[in-house]
Design goal:
By secondary structure, the protein is α/β, with parallel strands linked by helices. It has helices spanning 37-45, 75-90, 145-164, 179-184, 199-202, 204-217, 240-251, 270-278, 290-298, 309-313, 317-323, and strands at 9-11, 14-16, 20-22, 51-57, 95-99, 117-118, 127-130, 133-136, 141-142, 169-174, 222-226, 258-261, 282-285, 304-307. 32% of the residues lie in helices and 16% in strands. An 8-stranded parallel beta barrel has the order 3-4-5-10-11-12-13-14, surrounded by 4 helices. A two-stranded antiparallel ribbon has the order 1-2. α1 packs parallel to α2, α3 packs parallel to α6 and α7 (240-251) runs parallel beside α8 (270-278). The longest helix is centred in the middle third of the chain and has 20 residues, at 145-164. The two termini are 24 Å apart. The structure holds flavin mononucleotide. Flavin mononucleotide (FMN) is lined by residues 23-26, 55-56, 98, 173, 175-176, 225, 262, 285-288, 307-310, 335.
Length: 351
């Protein structure tokens, strides 16, 4: 019997040859925020995934919180990404761009001096790597109403640029404490207007970004990633179940490609609640191996499973999982920045 992991499926308009997704991973190898031929090699090597989700990619200059991460708001960036999508498509793979605005997890040294923006003027605890070394995360500027509308428009424009660059779609980064999560979380969002306060108001930004992206390129090409209860990047929500119950219910009113979930185990069944309320096709991620992936797929808890570090270190991960072959170990020293070392030089299995 074929394992479900190796059977095809579809997420919205996107056909997947198998259920193995490459999770989005920032690698900080885009000097000037423009994708390079080396990045095309890296993603091309991993085209055996049913779907690749790119590293977090900014929709605007003020969303470039980390040094040398790529954007999707200039012609040069669209051109650079075209090399990546062509390399993946030439090998029969599928690839979506993860659109990430970092919000308050940023530093003006990385945004070309542009203000760091967030729902409210509340700094996250932590430091940011810049060309001048590690610096404390700054107190961000609270976005004005017009600023919020501008950022929503930037997400939609990035979605259009993604299609122009040859992507099969986009994934909105609503996880891990970046701008969309900052709106969702009461400790980062202290607004008293329609964008803050109740769960309904805190979810408004995520839904507005989703709706604008759907209007821009069609729901069949738009996914969203969420991480309920994940404290990463100084996020806290004492009523996380209420927040995400509302959000999942609202997602259920919309037609989009998939919901991608990761996060800690909470005292309620997050994927189960998400499936029941949103009816979305689900990708689950976080610490999966082949056997656990197969169990969740067989139980109908998800349509596909994403692998992060497993894919980072194994360009031929689906083939290795199929053969139950040993995996290369990831080297965290080369995760961010640098060159081909720890990037395109992880070996594939001998044919
Ligand atoms: C080097 C590295 C960079 C990451 N960058 C991103 C990112 O840009 N966007 C995102 O949503 N998650 C990011 N993540 C989280 C991964 O997508 C994934 O959730 C995490 O690695 C857990 O999956 P795993 O247990 O299969 O590795 C990153 C993880 C790693 C290791």
């Amino acid at each position: 019997m074929t394992d479900i992991l190796f059977t095809p499926t579809t997420l919205g308009d996107i056909p997947l040859a198998n259920r193995i997704v490459m999770a989005p991973m920032t690698r900080s190898r885009a000097p000037g925020n423009v994708p390079t031929p080396l990045m095309a090699t890296y993603y091309g090597q991993r085209a055996g995934a049913g779907l690749i989700v790119t590293e977090g990619t900014s929709p605007s200059a003020d969303g470039l919180g980390y040094i040398t991460i790529p954007g999707l708001f200039s012609d040069a960036q669209v051109q650079g990404w075209r090399g990546v999508t062509e390399a993946v498509h030439a090998k029969g793979g599928r690839i979506v761009a993860q659109i990430m605005h970092t919000g308050r997890i940023s530093h003006p040294d990385n945004t070309g001096g542009l203000p760091v923006v967030a729902p409210s003027a509340v700094a996250a605890q932590g430091q940011m790597f810049t060309a001048g070394g590690m610096k404390p995360l700054p107190v961000p500027e609270a976005l004005t109403e017009a600023g919020i509308e501008r950022v929503i428009g930037d997400f939609a424009a990035a979605a259009r640029n993604a299609v122009a660059a040859g992507f099969d779609g986009i994934e909105i980064h609503g996880a891990n404490g970046y701008l969309v999560t900052q709106f969702l979380a009461p400790n980062a969002n202290r607004r008293e207007d329609r964008w803050g306060g109740s769960a309904e108001n805190r979810a408004r930004f995520a839904l507005a970004v989703l709706d604008a992206s759907i209007a821009a390129i069609g729901g069949g090409r738009v996914g969203i990633r969420l991480s309920p209860g994940n404290p990463f990047n100084d996020i806290a929500d004492p009523a996380v179940e209420e927040t995400y119950t509302h959000l999942f219910r609202e997602l259920g009113k919309r037609d989009f490609a998939y919901l991608h979930l990761l996060g800690p185990k909470l005292d309620f069944d997050v994927p189960g609640l998400a499936k029941r309320l949103s009816g979305a096709r689900l990708i689950l991620n976080g610490g999966y191996d082949r056997d656990r992936a197969e169990v969740d797929l067989a139980a109908g808890r998800a349509e596909a499973i994403a692998f992060g570090t497993g894919f980072l270190a194994n360009p031929d991960l689906p083939e290795r999982l199929r053969r139950r072959a040993p995996l290369n170990a990831p080297d965290s020293a080369t995760f961010y920045g640098g060159d081909a070392k720890g990037y395109t030089d992880y070996p594939a299995l001998a044919a």
